Amino acid sequence: MKIQILGTGCLKCNQLEKNARDAISQLGLDCEIEKISDINEIIGFGVMMTPGFVVDGNVKSSGKLLSVAEIKELLQ
What we know:
The protein is α+β, with helices and mostly antiparallel strands and 76 residues long. The chain is built from 3 helices and 4 strands; from the N terminus they run E-H-E-H-E-E-H. The protein has helices at 11-27, 39-44, 68-75, and strands at 2-6, 32-36, 52-55, 58-62. Helix 1 (11-27) packs across helix 3 (68-75). The chain is globular.
């Protein structure tokens, strides 16, 4: 499973990455995590508000800081 965090480096984007790592650890999943900060790549996903959360190329959330529990729900 590949997780991509879309964001330019703001506090919410960094927190989303931390929450994603925590959720993955708690679930015991083997995931690749990639942080994408290039605005053109972010727009390429159709995301206009960051942070964005992408699982295997599918945008699951944008413009919202997901909690660890919300991320776990998306990954199960």
